[in-house]
Design brief:
Number of helices: 3
CATH architecture of the largest domain: Alpha-Beta Complex
Distance between the termini: 39 Å
Order of helices and strands: EEEEEEEHEEEHH
Number of strands: 10
Length: 182
């Protein structure tokens, strides 16, 4: 069975700084039409940076949609659809934590909300860190914390780390290290 859908119309409802929202009409597999609401986003990156002491760099920040402070690994959005994800990851790691890394390993891509959003998050692990000054965005207020990798895994399992990209990256990093794949 062919599961693909074909876009017939595209109407922008909102164009913003971070996202655009559109309403499409599509032909679905049974030949009828359906409305598809789509959030467009340039995509982003996250970086699970591991210190020589097997600690992961985290940032704690207030996330307005949830009205709470949460722990995440350093992350940010791409400046454009053409920005190289690795370069974006290097920039975000430096801005948020002051860290630079000598080695990066791809942890793959994550589709955070495929039901309505086209965002792709590229995940990386970073090793051999050096530390300098942070340079967060003007509207970004962060606290940096180092958490042992083993404890971070426990925090994922216990529901203490609620951010999807952080959960996926931490679990992938742990698996790859344990299986000597990185």
């Amino acid at each position: 069975m062919n599961l693909s859908e074909k876009q017939l119309t595209k109407e922008y409802i909102f164009k913003g700084k971070v996202i655009n929202v559109r309403r499409d009409t599509a032909i679905i597999p049974d030949g009828t039409t359906a409305i598809r609401e789509v959030v467009e986003h340039n995509g982003g990156v996250c970086v699970a940076a591991l210190t020589d002491n097997n600690e992961v760099l985290f940032v704690k920040q207030f996330r307005y949609p949830y009205m709470e402070e949460i722990f995440e690994i350093p992350a940010g959005k791409r400046d454009s659809l053409t920005e190289d994800p690795l370069e974006c990851g290097k920039r975000e790691l430096k801005e948020e934590t002051g860290a630079t890394a000598k080695r990066f390993v791809s942890l793959g891509q994550l589709y955070p909300t495929p039901g309505y959003c086209g965002e792709i998050i590229w995940m990386f692990a970073a090793f051999d860190l050096d530390f300098g000054d942070c340079d967060p965005d003007d509207d970004e207020f962060l606290e940096i914390e180092k958490i042992p990798l083993e404890k971070a895994v426990e925090m994922v399992i216990n529901g203490e780390l609620k951010d999807a990209k952080t959960q996926a990256a931490i679990l992938k990093l742990k698996y790859l290290i344990d299986n000597k794949r990185i």
